[in-house]
Every structure is written in C-alpha cells, then in structure tokens.
Design a protein that fits this description.
Blueprint (H helix, E strand, L loop, with lengths): L6 E4 L2 E7 L1 H18 L6 E6 L3 H9 L6 E6 L3 E2 L2 E2 L17 E9 L3 H12 L4 E9 L12 E5 L5 E2 L15 E4 L3
Parallel strand pairs: 3-4, 3-7, 7-8, 8-9
Antiparallel strand pairs: 1-2, 2-11, 5-6, 10-11
Helix pairs in contact: 1-2
The structure holds guanosine-5'-monophosphate (5GP).
The site of guanosine-5'-monophosphate (5GP) has 20 residues, from strand 7, helix 3 and strand 10.
Amino acid sequence: MSQNLPTINVNDKSFELFISSETIQKAVERLADRISVDLDGKNPLFLVVLNGAFIFAADLLKRIKIDCQVSFVKLSSYSGTKTTNIVRELIGLDEILHGRTIVIVEDIIDTGLTMAEAINKLYKLEAAEVYLATLLFKPKAFQKDFKIDYIGIEIPNDFIVGYGLDYDGFGRNYPDIYKIIDK
Ligand code: 5GP
C-alpha cells in the first residue's frame, strides 16, 4: 500500500508522504478560527517555539483575525530521532508577561516534557493565562496531564519531518509532512 506514496530521503533515512499540505492548511485554518473567537478582546501574545514551529506559526498568524502580538523563543528537548529528556532554557523572551494572555505555538507535542517546562516558566514570569496551540500531537507518547487547548492533528508515534519539522536540521522546507519508513 505504502509503495505508491511519494517518498523523500533526508540524510540517511527514507520518509513517505503522511499529511498533505492541503490537509495541514485546513487544520491550521480551523485552529485560527477557534483561537480568533475564543481570545477576542484578550490581546494575546503568541509565543512561537523555534525552530520547528516557524512555518506553522506563519500560516496560523496570517489567519488570526484579532489584535495580538507575536514573539519567538527557543526551547527544545530533541536530538536526532529520539527525545533526550534534556530540556533547555527558554531563550529570547524580551516581553513583560505580567498579566498577559499567552498562546504557545508549537509544532508537535510528543512526551509533553518540553511544554510542561515552558508552561511552568511562563507562569513564573507572571503570565495571567497560558494557552497551548500545537499543530501535531502524539497522544500515545504523552506523559503529562496539562491541557492542550488547540490541537491541529493527532498522529501515531512515528517520527515525522516537513512543514518546519527536521531530522538533524534537514527536511524543514517541505510543504507536506512525511513519516519515517525504516526505524
Ligand atoms: P516533547 O518534549 O513533547 O517530547 O517533544 C517536543 C519536541 O520534540 C517538539 O518541539 C519537536 O521539536 C520534537 N519532536 C517530537 N516528535 C517529533 C517528530 O516526530 N519529528 C520531529 N522532527 N521532531 C519531533
């Protein structure tokens, strides 16, 4: 069945088409519509988690119809194709968060360790409320219990690339999402 799907090679691994650009765009539009309704009047600050969320964030923000601000942070726990459990610091946050409504914009939530740290840090910086918007979610890998407010697409536990997501730095530039073939 999978032989007919388009495949790509990224570094030493092969990936097959998993989620088309069209499906992604529809999911992004649904999220943007919901966020625009829910957070109207709250002047949210969107915090985009670099690097992986940069394409998702660009598509999402173009469709957000309410007053808002956007900023970019770095925070990652990933190296190669396996989570490492090492969560790095939040880098690049210049805004004063006191009393603000924050929407974290993330590419994918896997174990949830990265986001658990991020949410804690943002509340320590006195954010009034922290919402979470992720394009992708791996429910079977999730180890935490925080609420994920906005989920684009739920996926199984496969390693994926494309639409901002990388394999050792490569593969971010594909408009579609591909999943690993051989493990
Ligand atoms: P978590 O802390 O939830 O386990 O991991 C979240 C981070 O791991 C994401 O921001 C992303 O950078 C990375 N990640 C998790 N699953 C995948 C995947 O399937 N492909 C890629 N490229 N990165 C992933």
